[in-house]
Amino acid sequence: MKPNLKRPITILIADDDPEDRMLAAEALKESRLANDIRFVEDGEELLDYLMLRGRFDNPDDAPRPGVILLDLNMPRKDGREALREIKENPELRRIPIIVLTTSKAEIDIYRSYDLGVNSFIVKPVTFDSLVEVMQVLRKYWFEIVEIAAE
Fold first, then answer.
1. Angle, CA of 135, 139 and 144, to the nearest 5°
2. Who contacts 42 (Cβ-Cβ below 8 Å, separation ≥6)?
């Protein structure tokens, strides 16, 4: 099956840890995913990005993501709060969200699915395992699944 070449899909990664952001970007590169990757550092920035507010007020600098990789444990507004707001917003709720977090807590898994997350993945401990996860995500989200256009 060929990748969807109709339009480039932006991946938005919401994670407060600079090392985790760098590792995710490297793992995506290693998995041969050539998509545009953008980063925000907390739930407030995530919502500002999606709503084109503040420093993200230029749509050219904040293209609508096709997929969001969301950490749950972030300052200011955590991933759980941001997830709730995104899924309650009719303009944003169709954007697929994949939780990628260190939390293995059952309550976080259940709560995330109750709020409408598309997948819940516990961050792998090794870089090679993270690359494997990104390869699976690439295949599934960018070759198999049809993502709703804006």
1. 165
2. 14, 16, 74, 75, 76, 77, 78
Residues near 138 by Cβ (< 8 Å), separated by ≥ 6?
A: 28, 31, 32, 33
Bridge partners of residue 134, in order along the sequence: none
Q: Is the pTM of this model over 0.85?
A: yes
Query: Which tokens hold the place of 75?
Result: 């300052």
CA 61/CA 81 separation, integer angstroms: 24
pLDDT per position as a tens digit, 87-114: 999 999 999 999 998 888 899 999 999 9
DSSP H/E element including 23: helix 18-30
Cα 97 to its chain centre, rounded Å, is: 5
In the numeric block, the tokens 């096709």 are attached to 66
User: Contact 50/86 with Cβ under 8 angstroms?
Assistant: yes
Spatial separation of the C-alpha atoms in residues 5 and 123, rounded to whole Å: 28
- Rounded to 5°, the CA angle 94-136-75 comes to 55
